[in-house]
Amino acid sequence: IIHPALGTTVCTRVIIHPALGTTVCTRGIIHPALGTTVCTSVIIHPALGTTVCTRGIIHPALGTTVCTRGIIHPALGTTVCTKGIIHPALGTTVCTRGIIHPALGTTVCTRGIIHPALGTTVCTRGIIHPALGTTVCTRGIIHPALGTTVCTRGIIHPALGTTVCTRGIIHPALGTTVCTRGIIHPALGTTVCTRGIIHPALGTTVCTRGIIHPALGTTVCTRGIIHPALGTTVCTRGIIHPALGTTVCTRGIIHPALGTTVCTRGIIHPALGTTVCTRGTFHQALGTTVCTREIIHPALGTTVCTRGIIHPALGTTVCTRRIIHPALGTTVCTRGIIHPALGTTVCTSVIIHQALGTTVCTRGIIHPALGTTVCTRGIIHPALGTTVCTRRIIHPALGTTVCTRGIIHPALGTTVCTSVIIHQALGTTVCTRGIIHPVLGTTVCTRGIIHPALGTTVCTRVIIHQALRTIVCTRGIIHPALGTTVCTRGTFHQALGTTVCTRGIIHLALGTTVCTSVIIHPVLGKTECEPEQAVSTARSRPLGWSLLLPQVFPLLPPGVTLRPCPGPCQPSVSHQPAGQVHLTDRSSSPESDWDFRSCSLLPARTPTLLHSPGAGKPPDSANTVITETPLPIFCF
């Protein structure tokens, strides 16, 4: 701190205050006797009033102020500024990220405002309201006294009505206009719009990304929509719609009042019918035409198509990439769609469709007259079996289907699947990254989702759903019909209801359980969670599935636990009474619906279930044994 006797000064970090008033300040506060100044971080205040401020506030006695990142309040013109304001004595002001409120011209500015004494205003990310009405706004809001305007990010609204808007809304008092991202609405009606909407009072117009709508009706549209009052037009990405009907369209839609037209990516529709199309759609009133990428459709029907669609009036044809469709029906299609008059076919990429119905499709869609087929990238659809598939699908007439990364829809078993799916006629399903929906067993699979008809299941990554409802789920969600379960990463749900979950959540109907990292849920509701504390749930009734083991569930004693066995499982009964069957070590087979072992780990004298139904057979009295043995732990 330096405090000379003649000039009171408080400063930190390098201050020089000569007796005559010259001051150099770095990162501190300076208060000279003749010119009150509060400054932080590099201030120079000569005796004559010149002030340079960086990251602070300077208030010279005479009013000259240069401020960067601070607040300036000159004596003659009240100004509050943050981060860079220049307010000379004559009124010129440059503001960055702050507020300026001069006494003569009320102005609220945020991040850059220039307000000269005469009224000119430049605004960046703020609001400017000069007294006279002239307004230049960039990224802010403008509300002139004479012309109400709300603008965000760049609006110019002179007093006479001219308006340039960028990413905002303009609502002049005389011409109601709603604009987003660049609209020009002069007082006479000329309009240029970029990414916004223009709604003049006399001619309703909706535009997005560049529209010109003169008062007489001429319209040039680029990536937007034009709706003149007299000729309804919807355009996206470049449309020219003169008043007489001539239309040039690029990536958009044109709907003249007299000739309905749908255009996408470059269409020319002269009044007489000649049509040249590039990547778009052409729909004349008398001759419907849909074309993309270079199509010539003379009035008589001759058609040459490259990467597009042709629909002559007499011979309907849809094609993309090199299609020749003579008037008699001969068709050669490469990477496109062919729709002969007698044999409807939609295909892309190397398709041969003979008159008798034989179809070979690669990367496209084939629709024979008798067997509807929609295919992309490798589909073979015999006439008797409707199939929708992508990438290498074989569908024999009897229903057998092999699908890889696609969709299969057999006639008797509706299936939608993508990426390696096998759906046999009897219902067996293996799905990876796809969806399977058989008619009798509704299944929705995405990277492994199984939804049996009676037991709703949602799972992701590696799911096997056999006809008997066996489910193996890894990193997914399992939702049995009676016991809601949500699990992610490592879930195993056998037909008996056993669930092993790692890093997931299990919610049973009778016992809500939320657990992460290793969850085991036995049939009776007992839950053990590791590494967290075990959560005991209601054990008064089983999970509730009535499809499997209905006679066995009621026999399970209270306290029986199902969980992964820590090691080799020993038989729970060392002897076998005559005429009875018991589980010696484990009961398993490729066809069985469940598999568990019993271990005599908990001493108790309680009836114990020992069950070995065999290959997918439900239990009955013949193979169900109850013996007085130590209470086991059923493990799997």
From TrEMBL:
Where is region (Disordered) located? 571-594
Q: Which domain of life is it from?
A: Eukaryota
| PANTHER family hit by this protein | INSULIN-LIKE GROWTH FACTOR BINDING PROTEIN,N-TERMINAL, SUSHI, VON WILLEBRAND FACTOR TYPE A, EGF AND PENTRAXIN DOMAIN-CONTAINING PROTEIN 1-LIKE
Could you identify this protein by its name? PFL5 protein
**Which organism encodes this protein?**
Atractosteus spatula
Q: What is the lineage of its organism?
A: Eukaryota, Metazoa, Chordata, Craniata, Vertebrata
**What gene name does this entry carry?**
Pfl5_1
